[in-house]
Amino acid sequence: MPTGNDAVPTVPHAPLIDQGLDLDDLLSGTFQSILRIEEQSLDNKFTRGLTITDVHTIVAIGLHEQNPMNVAATRLGVTMATLTTAVNKLERLGFVRRTRSDEDRRKVLLSLTCAGRKVYRVHRIFHEKMVDAALSELSEGEERVLAVALMKVKAFFEERA
Fold first, then answer.
1. Which of 34, 77, 73 is nearest to 52 (CA)?
2. Cβ atoms within 10 A of the Cβ of 136, count?
3. Global pTM value
4. CATH topology assigned to domain 42-136
5. Where are the chain's structural domains?
């Protein structure tokens, strides 16, 4: 009988399981650890008072001068209504500027203020340092294997999102 989980095929990874490795635990545990580390990184003068969701919204807007709201919503994988709520908060706090397109007044364009650009840069530097530290114990070959494996895992989840 088909179940609701049919969309995700189960393929046993016996060699890894036999060695005591639980891939689900590795993936979900790594994801949770990254989120916790990101949350801890917000305790600085540029990001104090922001949530990790706020910071990710700032990153999705990016350093582009005029970024359409629908593009940022797509990058975040959220609805326009959800993004509007986030942008309202970030605009009120002085991190985001909202303007109308000169060509199409219906189109709302987003850009970062000076404070928003600082948050963007601080978060980028944080990610660069985190990745460098995480990979520091790997050989160049191990890094390549990890990159290829992560690209495949990412593609798998993106196809289903």
1. 34
2. 7
3. 0.76
4. Arc Repressor Mutant, subunit A (1.10.10)
5. 42-136
pLDDT tens, position by position, 31-89 = 899 989 988 888 778 888 899 999 999 999 988 778 899 999 998 999 999 999 999 99
Express each pLDDT in 98-157 by its tens digit: 999 888 888 999 999 999 999 999 999 999 999 999 999 999 999 999 999 999 999 998
CA atoms within 13 A on the CB side of 110: 28
Kindly state the tokens that stand for 127. 């990610």
Tokens linked to 83: 């993004």
- What does DSSP assign to residue 154? H
Shortest CA distance to 98 belongs to which of 107, 106, 84, 108?
Answer: 108
DSSP for residue 54: H
